[in-house]
Write a structure and sequence with these properties.
Chain C: It comes from Jannaschia rubra. Chain C: It is a multi-pass membrane protein. Chain C: It holds the Pfam family BPD_transp_2. Chain C: This is Leucine/isoleucine/valine transporter permease subunit. Chain C: Keywords: Cell membrane, Membrane, Transmembrane, Transmembrane helix. Chain A is an alpha/beta fold and about 400 residues long. Chain A contains 14 helices and 15 strands. Chain A has helices at about 5-15, 45-55, 75-90, 100-115, 145-160, 170-185, 205-215, 225-240, 255-260, 265, 280-295, 300-320, 325-330, 385; strands spanning about 25-30, 65-70, 95-100, 120, 140, 165-170, 190-200, 220-225, 245-250, 270-275, 335-340, 345, 355, 355-360, 375-380. In chain A, β6 (about 165-170), α6 and β7 (about 190-200) form a beta-alpha-beta unit. Chain A is globular and about 65 Å long. Chain B is mostly helical and about 300 residues long. Chain B has one domain: ABC transporter involved in vitamin B12 uptake, BtuC. In chain B, strands 1-2 form a two-stranded antiparallel sheet. In chain B, α1 (about 10-40) packs antiparallel against α8. The longest helix of chain B has about 30 residues, at about 10-40. A two-stranded antiparallel ribbon of chain C has the order 1-2. In chain C, α2 packs parallel to α6. The two termini of chain C are about 10 Å apart. The chains are: A alpha/beta (about 400), B mainly alpha (about 300), C mainly alpha (about 325). Chains in contact: A-B, A-C, B-C. Chains A and B meet through β7, α7, α8 and α9 of A and α1 and α10 of B.
Chain lengths: ~400, ~300, ~325
């Protein structure tokens, strides 16, 4: 076991004469995509966010020596699980943060449970993390596909978009996103008139978009992510589909994607996020600090890493040691968290963090006052409504 | 109104047209690969990366120098071509006497490097590139809305493909080129500078990839991964057409675009694999490819 | 050269023994899971090298057997509840069948066309892995249990698993070595060097080619099946064409057609991926640079160069 001794901190604390309740080492691993499709929305930015959390938490003053390591899981479950295993076994990592890409997240959740660590997931969307494959040591912080479906699907159906056609990325994530949204659409009195499974990844969506156009749907639901969604939206505008009155619903879309697409093409798009930098004074101030270090505004995933890390450190402080992951996760589930970025947050027995979600619409270029001035806030969806109800067998507080 | 398997003729027409547009990209890219393979006996695995580079150069020209689409259409392939020539002179030229395998491996490595570098500096989300003013908008053809830009892609690709075919098959320069493919030593003995010709051919082949990249930039987001998976498909196109056959590469590019388009209607999940199924069948029945000469 | 058929040369014997001793000691110094990964890839590369280095056939689709077997083995362990050794056997058998099917079609073609046929079939296997219900799409088959070996020894412990993996991969590599240095291997070399001549000598060339293809696929499958037990996971990475490229890289870097080259190549590449993971996008760049330098300057591969220095086949 490699353990960095907190000698420096400990000595410093002693000589300063401060009353320290405990001197302990905490090691956090930020495991995310640093080179692939999710690199911009998680990547190095998430490491920056975790560092900010440690600083703002005042770990050093509290006698906690918190160290961060990071690695690229390349969106491959085998790479991710290998790193996670090694981190727990060899590096003495106590908690793994971020982990976008559902397949990797599920693999890491499993290992985390075996090794009694904690996974605070911000980047992945699969509801499986707290439903079918729930683990006592998994905390799912930022969003999930059900919350996105509830936000975007519900709002658009209520606004009159009753007939839906799905372009579904042909893999488990895409199908679950479609399934979640279908439920929401039907609950709100809408119907699904068709869908097409698009091989993943795809560059050209024109053929599928034309099929969607021919279906007479009001809304084309894009059950895909990243570059696929960007291309689909771009081509929908090129083929005059949005101009002809059909609406696009991007079911998983991040502020970095909108930024890449440009307000010109993305305008009018509805999407759901847990966090937007320009929400209030606190988020603006925090995001400005983040931007200064990282060079771009934070995404909700990066903001989630910050909040999740903060909550984790509080729990570690309360428990008094970072060794027992299950105890820390249990502690997190008892806390009333007033988060500067997410507002009131509670962590449910299954590890699902419950907080508000927000529906946004992308501004048109003439409404937008700057490079990152991209969203208009439409409505807020309360946490209880946004996320799926807890499964009984997943309530680990019982 | 008769329906074909539940698809109306209008929809079918639309899908075929879209297939043709995609086929245009395949044709230009596979043409470049075929030209390079024909003369250099190298399977240029870096083709996808150079296609991506073409799109990026267009984007850089616009963002850093304010050079617009039309100039980029000429400048970007030139820059990519020169870059290719540098690669050829410094590395590829050392491998001509060896097995094909080594050229493939070298260019595979080059592709990893080029893609990795762009990913490091420009991230992965992609960069926006607008359709040029003159080509925005579109025509309503009755059965579908055809964006002007897509029509332009088909036209530009057809002109470039025909031009290349004409140059290689019908001009004196092309005759030297074909002769050099057959027997470089003999052609060299006639006083023709074969290494120079090889160098320019490689430059031209990758310039075609760069050209396709510029064509693609306004449609797809300019993204470091845009060529990564495409290369395997284009590869298959060249094999189906017959390695080294110019006409074969062009025609197969268009035809497979159409086939893929149809698959997207009848069995969308399979559209990513249909080309490989065809490739396996063709190779087993007619190994030299549809248009290749029997070895 | 001919005396090789009668027994293992002393040098090889020594190297194998040193290697075995090293591998027995290894898990006490490095992370066992990492060491197991290296061994799985070493077997994979050795199996690939049998086909490329000794059979002279470049397959660009070996991920199909590696990944296919890992899916079958994972499914066997998780859903059928088989013990680890039976799961690995099931995966290996599946790879053998797949190898027989694809091989019997592919060996009709030569050179670059052979490579392309194998690639095409591998892409189809990838497609199936994505589409079939039992593979779990891009999530793969996760949480594969590490069962009890022969129903007796629990493999939960990394060390126990390590020695199981060591036994299987080392045994596999020794078997491949025997194949290469058997009369069968000699005929293979003859076919690789001069196929028409081998035909004129009365050898049924296609049968030899098919046999070596199936053998190669089988052991590639064994490696993949082992990997799924080690990582408790079978995923699309293992069937993607990138994996086929990686095994070519390992073999080439180590030295194709040498006995120890693929092992060295696998060790280097896996180590590199492991320790450079923190560098993010730089990993692919560094890998690319190794490819380029390897092809330009060290075509014989590392072991090939050493073998030339000491003037002994390795």
């Amino acid at each position: 076991m490699i353990r960095t001794l907190a000698l420096g901190t400990a000595l410093g604390a002693l000589t300063a004469g401060a009353a320290m309740a405990q001197d302990m080492d905490v090691k956090l691993g930020v495991l995310n995509d640093r080179s692939g499709v999710y690199a911009d929305l998680s990547g190095e930015g998430s490491v920056v966010a975790a560092r900010m959390a440690i600083e703002d938490f005042g770990a050093a003053d509290k006698g906690m020596n918190v160290e961060i390591i990071s690695a690229d899981h390349q969106n491959k479950p085998d790479v991710g699980s290998n790193i996670a295993r090694q981190w727990y076994d060899e590096e003495g990592v106590n908690a793994i943060l971020d982990v976008p890409t559902s397949s990797v997240a599920l693999a890491v959740a499993d290992i985390t449970a075996q090794k009694n660590g904690v996974m605070i997931n911000s980047g992945a969307g699969s509801t499986e993390l707290t439903q079918g494959q729930c683990r006592p040591t998994t905390i799912h912080w930022t969003y999930d596909t059900a919350a996105l479906a509830n936000g975007t699907g519900g709002a658009m159906t209520k606004a009159g978009g009753e007939k839906w056609f799905f372009l579904t990325a042909d893999y488990a994530f895409g199908h679950s996103l479609e399934e979640n949204t279908t439920t929401v659409v039907q609950e709100n009195g809408g119907e699904v008139v068709g869908q097409v499974d698009v091989p993943f990844p795809a560059m050209d969506f024109s053929s599928f978009l034309l099929q969607a156009q021919g279906s007479g749907a009001d809304v084309i639901g894009l059950a895909n992510a990243g570059g696929d969604t960007v291309n689909a939206i771009k081509q929908a505008s090129e083929f005059g589909i949005t101009q002809a009155g059909q609406k696009l619903a991007a079911l998983l879309f991040f502020v970095t994607d909108v930024h890449a697409l440009g307000a010109e093409t993305a305008q009018g798009l509805s999407l759901t996020e847990a966090f937007y930098w320009d929400f209030d004074d606190t988020t603006r101030e925090w995001s400005a600090r983040f931007e200064e270090i990282h060079g771009a505004k934070p995404t909700m995933v990066q903001a989630g890493v910050y909040s999740g890390t903060m909550a984790y450190l509080q729990a570690v402080e309360a428990v008094g040691s970072a060794e027992d992951g299950e105890a820390i996760a249990a502690q997190m589930k008892t806390m009333e968290i007033d988060d500067p970025l997410f507002g009131a947050v509670t962590v449910r027995g299954d590890g699902r963090a419950i907080h508000d979600m927000h529906l946004f619409e992308v501004k048109s270029p003439d409404q937008s006052t700057g490079e990152w001035d991209l969203y208009t806030h439409i409505s807020t969806i309360g946490g209880e409504e946004a996320f799926l109800p807890m499964l009984d067998e997943c309530d680990f507080t019982k | 109104m008769f329906d074909l398997l539940g698809i109306s003729p209008q929809v079918l027409m639309g899908q075929l047209l879209l297939g043709l547009i995609n086929g245009s990209f395949y044709a230009v890219l596979s043409l470049g690969l075929a030209v390079i393979f024909g003369l250099l006996n190298i399977i240029n695995f870096a083709h996808g990366a150079l296609y991506m580079m073409g799109a990026f150069v267009a984007w850089m020209l616009l963002s850093y120098l304010g050079v617009g689409y039309w100039w980029a259409l000429i400048l970007s392939p030139l820059i990519v071509g020169v870059f290719g020539i540098v690669l050829e002179r410094t590395m590829l030229s050392r491998l001509y006497k060896l097995d094909h395998l080594y050229g493939l491996l070298l260019t595979f490595g080059l592709a990893l490097i080029i893609q990795g570098l762009f990913r490091n500096y420009y991230g992965i989300s992609g960069l926006p590139y607008q359709i040029p003013e003159a080509l925005s908008g579109g025509q309503n053809l009755g059965f579908m809305f055809l964006p002007n830009y897509r029509a332009w892609v088909v036209a530009a690709s057809a002109v470039v493909c025909f031009g290349t075919w004409f140059m290689i098959e019908k001009t004196r320069l092309g005759a030297y080129l074909r002769a050099a493919t057959e027997n470089p030593v003999l052609v060299g003995a006639f006083g023709i500078n074969v290494p120079l010709m090889i160098m320019l051919t490689y430059g031209f082949g990758v310039a075609l990839a760069g050209f396709a990249g510029v064509l693609a930039a306004p449609i797809y987001s300019v993204n470091p991964n845009m060529g990564a998976d495409l290369i395997i498909v284009v590869f298959a196109v060249v094999v189906i057409g017959g390695m080294g056959s110019i006409m074969g590469a062009i025609l197969t590019g268009y035809v497979l675009g159409l086939v893929e388009g149809l698959t997207r209607v009848f069995y969308p999940e399979g559209s990513a694999v249909v080309i490989f199924v065809i490739m396996a069948i063709v190779l087993l029945i007619k190994p030299e490819g549809l248009f290749g000469k029997a070895a | 050269m001919m005396q090789q058929t009668t027994g293992m040369p002393r040098l090889h014997k020594v190297i194998f023994l040193v290697l075995l001793a090293f591998l027995i000691a290894l898990p006490f110094f490095v992370y066992p899971v990492f060491a197991m990964k290296v061994m799985c890839f070493a077997l994979f590369a050795a199996a690939f090298n049998l086909l490329l280095g000794f059979g002279g056939l470049l397959s660009f689709g070996h991920a199909a057997y590696f990944g296919g077997a890992s899916y079958v083995a994972a499914h066997a362990a998780k859903v059928w509840g088989l013990t680890p050794e039976l799961s690995v056997l099931a995966g290996t058998a599946a790879a053998a069948v797949l190898g027989l099917l694809i091989g019997s079609l592919a060996i009709r073609r030569q050179g670059i066309y052979f490579a392309m046929v194998t690639l095409a079939f591998a892409q189809m296997v990838y497609f199936l892995a994505l589409q079939l219900p039992f593979t779990g799409g891009e999530d793969g088959i996760q949480s594969v249990p590490r069962g009890d070996l022969f129903g007796l020894i629990s493999l939960q412990n990394n060390m126990a698993l390590y020695f199981f993996v060591l036994a299987v991969t080392f045994g596999g590599i020794l078997f491949l070595y025997r194949v290469v240095h058997s009369p069968f291997g000699q005929v293979l070399k003859a076919i690789r060097e001069n196929e028409p001549r081998a035909i004129s000598l009365g050898y049924d060339v296609n049968r030899y080619k098919l046999t070596v293809f199936v053998l190669s696929a089988t052991f590639a499958g064994m490696a993949g099946a082992m990997k799924s037990q080690v990582f408790q996971l079978a995923s699309l990475t293992d069937v993607h064409w990138g994996m086929s490229g990686e095994v070519v890289l390992m073999t080439l870097l180590g030295g194709m057609g040498t006995v120890f080259g693929p092992l060295a190549g696998a060790a280097i590449i896996v180590t590199m991926q492991n320790y450079l993971a923190t560098f993010g996008a730089w990993v692919t760049i560094i890998q690319g640079v190794i490819f380029v330098i390897g092809v330009l300057l060290f075509r014989e591969g590392i072991v090939g160069v050493i073998s030339r220095w000491i003037r002994r086949p390795l």
